[in-house]
Design goal:
5 helices, single chain, mainly alpha
């Protein structure tokens, strides 16, 4: 059972990473056509994010985060970087796309991301403490020496 878990998490990590990496690369190099939301509200959202440069920034995050996941480097950081993109894609795909395969894609990637967050939760545990003392970068021992 532990082997199955290990390989499933490996699959989720590499799949999510490759998906994001390919999506980011595609935006800048135009390998296949960029999907355009059929819904007027979704199309307006995409237009505004393009004009503000947020869409381009999201694509850079997709490439960086995707590369990190595929190469198994800084995975907890990559998951944090990619989460706003994953949530946006989930909303756009699930609520604004008439195509079933696009809806499934957005929901699948969101589910994979949540499973990976749960798998790496130990690395985020300190973020959920109600009260912590500062641990400055400039102090070698930080909170542990006083």
């Amino acid at each position: 059972m532990e082997n199955l878990q290990k390989y499933l998490l490996l699959f989720f990590r590499v799949y999510l990473g490759a998906f994001n990496l390919a999506s980011g690369i595609n935006f800048f190099f135009g390998v296949w056509p960029q999907p355009i939301p059929a819904d007027a509200l979704g199309a307006a959202y995409m237009d505004v994010t393009l004009k503000l440069g947020l869409f381009q920034f999201a694509k850079v995050l997709e490439m960086v985060g995707g590369f990190l996941l595929v190469t198994d480097l800084f995975v907890p950081l990559a998951l944090v970087l990619l989460f706003p993109v994953t949530v946006t894609i989930f909303i756009m795909n699930v609520f604004f796309s008439p195509m079933v395969h696009v809806v499934i894609s957005g929901a699948r990637n969101f589910a994979f991301h949540c499973v990976l967050f749960a798998a790496y939760f130990g690395h985020y545990r300190a973020l959920f403490k109600a009260s912590v003392v500062p641990w400055p970068l400039w102090r070698a021992g930080g909170a542990s020496d006083g």
